[in-house]
Amino acid sequence: SVPDGELRAQMTPCMVENKYGNPISMTKVKDKYILDFGQNFAGIVEIDPSFLTNETITIRHGEILNADGSLYTANLRKAKAAIVYHAGAEKKKYRPRFTYMGFRYMELSGADYRPGMIKAYALHTDMKRTGYFSCENPMVQKLYENQVWGQKSNYVEVPTDCPQRDERMGWTGDAQVFSWTGAFTRNTALF
Fold this sequence. Notes:
two-stranded antiparallel sheet, 7-stranded antiparallel β-sheet, alpha+beta
């Protein structure tokens, strides 16, 4: 049977993508390049294939590095947070369409990194900023700014849990503890 009711457009705020930009630094660990975007966030990368010829590159994401400077991925558990991209004749820039990752660092293998080859975009639900906080203590101020970024990374269409691992799905366990803080910082009424 056909369900009753009227089909309506989504009432919640839309997703937005904010250009985060190029990595702030790059190091080479063995045969892999580690790109540091300077800030942990939920988002995607964009690959510019004009920097490639016929290579197959692999990109992995992570929040921290191992002591030797390599990408730490143990916290991803079973998540296959990797992009395998083969550069063929198509030169259109590539972005993943059906996933996003939580990361600060990106590991590139399969080709030499060149500036401009990879850009990052932060994703979050578009909610108006309603609350601000500032103080003279730089550690407390940084804690607050981390909370602002954490909210953006975990408010991706629905409250999510850990955008970097295999639990990246709707989750209200942590969100219910954070809800008052989240409502202070952003207008969460429709969210």
